[in-house]
Amino acid sequence: MPFLDHLEELRWRILWCILSVMIGAVVGFGLVYYLDVLELLVDPVRKAYDNPNLKLIYLSPSDSFFVTLRLAIYAGLLMAFPFLAYHIWAFLSPALKPQERRVIIPPLYGGLVLFAAGVSLAYWIALPVTLDFFQRFQTESLQANLEINATLGFIVKMLMAFGFVFELPIVIMILSWMGIVTPDFLRKKRRHAIVLITVLASFITPGDVIVLTFMMMVPLILLYEVGIFLSVGIYRRKAQREQDFETDTTPPTGSVETQ
Predict the structure, then answer these.
(1) Phi/psi of residue 258, each to 5°?
(2) Cα 241–247–248 angle (5° rounding)?
(3) How many Cβ atoms from other residues are within 10 Å of residue 258's Cβ?
(4) 3-state secondary structure of 179
(5) Among 164, 161, 156, 160, which Cα is nearest to 70's?
């Protein structure tokens, strides 16, 4: 395909991606508004403060609308992810070999599963522990006035942080496919990786350094080991393809031997 045709296809792919996100945001707005997703996010705060009637305050008449809009955009991105993955794949797949396509397809959708697992761990376990830790510093001389933007911003950032760090096996898989890292390198650097994971977990998980950091360290270390396993599989496939290529003595079609 000529270069200008590639640009034209890319333009249409981008337009379809934008349209899918917009449609997802519209649908997400309805879901957030009618299913009261805001209540779902505020519920851990109420439990931490032991106040079932707790309500978040807002400082501007438009805050309630824009908070709902932001949640709708997040929901729209999640719902539009399969369409985004399809258009990215449809644009890149013609330039890939069949074996490369088989390597890339699992990370596209496996990453969404890992992201959901990280968000679930943060919501059900990490977030309540963090809020309970902060609540311990509440004294009689302090009055809690939880503002909606700051409170939801804290909750959403924590959920997103857990979701993104759970993409570690996918990152290792892609780096292995590109030849940047090898299984031996990952095994030798295991201690360094554990130190980096500990530092990363301590930054992402505010509050109780011992309990919450440990809760995030263990899954990340396990995911690192899963990444090593995936890297081994990728390099075995590479070695098998190289061996098949070296042992294949069939002359190309149209050569002298085939005539």
Answers:
(1) -85, -5
(2) 85
(3) 9
(4) coil
(5) 156
Per DSSP, 96 falls in state S
Beta strand segments in the chain, E = none
Residue 147 bridge partners (DSSP): 57
d(CA 11, CA 128): 44
End-to-end CA distance of the chain: 32
- Domains of the chain: which residue ranges? 1-95, 97-138+145-245
Each residue's pLDDT, cut to its tens digit, for the chain (259 residues) gives 677 777 888 888 899 989 998 998 899 888 888 888 889 899 999 988 888 888 899 988 899 899 989 988 888 888 888 788 778 777 777 766 666 666 666 676 778 888 889 899 889 988 888 888 888 877 778 888 899 998 998 898 888 888 888 988 888 888 888 788 999 999 999 999 999 988 888 777 665 556 777 777 888 899 999 989 988 988 888 788 777 766 755 655 555 555 5
Residue 190 half-sphere exposure toward CB, CA atoms < 13 A: 12
Indicate the DSSP class of residue 57: B
Q: What is the CA radius of gyration of the chain?
A: 24
Number of C-beta neighbours around residue 67 at 10 A: 20
